[in-house]
Design brief:
The protein has 169 residues and is mainly alpha-helical. The protein is 47% helix and 6% strand.
């Protein structure tokens, strides 16, 4: 009977479920049920906190080689999109931060890029490499952006971040 089982029996049951290949969400659902059963139904207040939730193991992200990154960026159609993705990659920006860049955010004298309203609404500076500065200068000469570094169809607005996402497909 489950009311006669102790904490070690519950842990053994969890190990058994993992060995059978249960998914992490299903395992956590089982833990919720066990915690409810022991805490509410059997009124064993000390037991629920001692039944741990499962933590899904973190997987390392796929990291592209330098050659793969170059091939990827060369395959992106359109100067504006390719330059925006190159800027995002070279400066470590989020796509939303890259599309929101203004020409005035590029400080070539200090070799930094000012990111306004990044994650959490915070401003920050990121390093501007010499190679990226060269790419941005070529882009600026060809595209002649006025306010936004990567303007959208309406020049008073930046390019939509979805344009970058779809270029990656």
């Amino acid at each position: 009977s489950p009311d006669h089982l102790g904490l070690e029996d519950v842990r053994a049951f969890q190990v058994h479920l993992v060995s059978k290949g249960i998914s992490w969400p299903a395992l956590n659902q089982t833990v919720c049920a066990l915690r409810f059963f022991y805490g509410v139904t059997l009124m064993r207040g000390e037991m629920p906190e001692r039944i741990p939730y499962a933590r899904e193991p973190r997987k390392l992200p796929v990291v592209l080689s330098a050659d793969e990154v170059v091939r990827f960026l060369e395959a992106v159609p359109g100067l504006k999109t390719r330059t925006a993705l190159t800027t995002a990659y070279a400066a470590g920006l989020r796509a939303s931060e890259a599309v929101s860049l203004k020409v005035s955010n590029i400080d070539s004298s200090r070799m930094v890029i000012r990111i306004e309203h990044g994650k959490g609404g915070k401003d920050r500076y990121v390093m501007l490499s010499v190679q990226l500065l060269g790419i941005l200068r070529v882009y600026w000469r060809l595209a002649q952006p006025a306010d936004w570094l990567f303007p959208g169809r309406d020049p008073s607005q930046p390019i939509n971040v979805q344009v970058l996402y779809s270029a990656c497909r």
